[in-house]
Design a protein that fits this description.
291 residues; 12 helices; 8 strands
């Protein structure tokens, strides 16, 4: 059980909502089909790109159910878990497991005065491992609650199901530090959207990163080039995507990403409140970069 390979290009799919905040299933189906047809190696739902913190447990199950119609037998479904306490993270993880997810991508707790120490973080992930009993990728994205390379090594060695980490906070140097500490004991996924090839060149095992969902075909090509020695072409694609990502990155990036998709002719629906406003200046910048 849970033998699917966790590596390569696993795009975190946007969650399109209608104007009332309900999941727009037909729109997300189109995004999933586009990704799979582009040659990706799996799908991720309910990440930051998919506005995961706004999704209830039953909505995680709905997204996983939709994804199961598109992934091939060997392709994993990775479900993001973003909760504020261990109990709720376990509950969400079990819901995702019941729906058919192949791995959980679990974010550290984020509320600033409830940030645990290293032992608390170990308890958080080890409890999820014991209760959910399925592969866990840590989503290292919370600036005030980072998983250090030392803690990651401890988790990989001291739990049964912590298998990898999506390294977002700290950029390329943090990914390299994680790789140096953990070696081949853990899968290290890149999430520095504007420098993915650089991360692959430093040993990343793939990417779970927003830019993959915008340009899945190009990102698959960049990964394949990095793996078969076509480094010049891989760097060329990284350079090609660099300025486009700069228009999307930052706080409330899902609304900018969805607008970029609209400029490209793809309907990704609305964001969920309170992510509702995009300035005209930001729109013009995105239009210029993505036209």
């Amino acid at each position: 059980m849970y033998s699917k390979k966790l590596e390569g290009i696993i795009p975190p799919i946007v969650t399109p909502f209608d104007e009332h905040g309900n999941i727009a299933a037909k729109l997300i189906e189109k995004e999933m089909k586009l990704a799979i047809d582009s040659g990706v190696h799996g799908l991720s739902v309910s990440g930051s790109t998919g506005e995961g913190p706004t999704l209830r447990d039953e909505e995680l199950k709905e997204l996983i159910s939709i994804a199961k119609d598109f992934v091939k037998e060997e392709q994993p479904i990775v479900c993001g878990i973003m909760r504020t306490c261990t109990r709720d993270a376990v509950k969400a993880g079990l819901a995702a497991k019941e729906a058919g997810a192949d791995a959980l991508m679990v974010t550290p707790t984020a509320y600033n005065v409830l940030v645990p120490d290293e032992d608390g973080m170990f308890d958080f992930y080890s409890t999820i491992s014991k209760e959910c009993r399925m592969p866990i990728i840590i989503y290292n994205v919370i600036p005030q609650n980072t998983v250090t390379p030392r803690l990651m090594k401890r988790l990989v060695e001291g739990t049964e199901f912590v298998r990898g980490i999506k390294q977002s906070v700290g950029g390329v140097p943090a990914l390299y530090a994680m790789k140096m500490m953990c070696g081949d004991k853990a899968k290290i996924f890149a999430a520095t959207d504007d420098m993915l090839y650089t991360c692959y060149d430093l040993g990343a095992d793939g990417a779970i990163s927003a830019i993959l969902s915008v340009f899945p075909k190009l990102c698959v090509e960049m990964w394949e080039c990095s793996q078969n020695g076509r480094k010049e072409r891989a760097l060329e694609i990284q350079n090609q995507l660099y300025d486009r990502w700069q228009c999307i990155a930052g706080n409330q990036f899902p609304i900018r990403l969805k607008y970029a998709l609209k400029v490209m002719g793809r309907d990704a629906g609305f964001c969920r409140s309170p992510i509702t406003h995009l300035s005209e200046e930001e729109k013009r910048q995105i239009e210029k970069a993505f036209a």
